[in-house]
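User: Teach me something about this protein's shape.
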Amino acid sequence: MTPEEVSALFTRSDGSYSFARWARPVAPVVFGVTDETLTVVKGALEAVMVLCGHQMAETDPELGSNMMIFFFRDWDELPDVPGLDRLVNDLVPLVGRLKEADANQYRVFHFDEAGGIKACFIFLRMDENLSAVPAETLALSQIVQSVLLWSDTAFRSASPLVVSGDKTILRPDIAALLRAAYDPVMPAAAGDPSHALRLSARITAAQ
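Assistant: First, the predicted structure itself:
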């Protein structure tokens, strides 16, 4: 990937460059799915963590679970989840905006003092569009979009996934970027576009 291609994935619509990766082990919990789907989601998460070289944990010492994935049918269900309003600021107004936009997914990130990701809450309203997506594809897509702080425009024109034969897999360029982003010598957070140059160089060196 060229520096320009990398930079575009972390340059927000307001023109600012903003990168962050997880700075602690990921301790996931999934709500609203069958045991079969739960296995698929955890399998996708484990595969991405192995790719990144990042760790998972049973619990997070601060939050218990620091990656929460919610599957539901209606946004109005969220305010009724006990304690969720303490994890997501202005939950009720947020739900109102998501309903007005007819959104079917949303992610909320929390960051530590150094800017690294310390928690992510993933909300999936299973409308007709999301329900039509195979569980494996949906799970992999959501995990990939939650292990880095991507630009708000990152995947509007192209998915991070690609169909290979009868399977949907991570795009090779995105897989290489994830490995580079989680290289121990790279920072957990960055706001300078020169960071994209370093990521691109590490991708090239690994090829």
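Now, about its shape. Residues 176 and 206 are 8 Å apart (CA to CA). The chain has a mean pLDDT of 94. If you'd like, I can walk through any region in more detail.
User: That's plenty for now, thanks!
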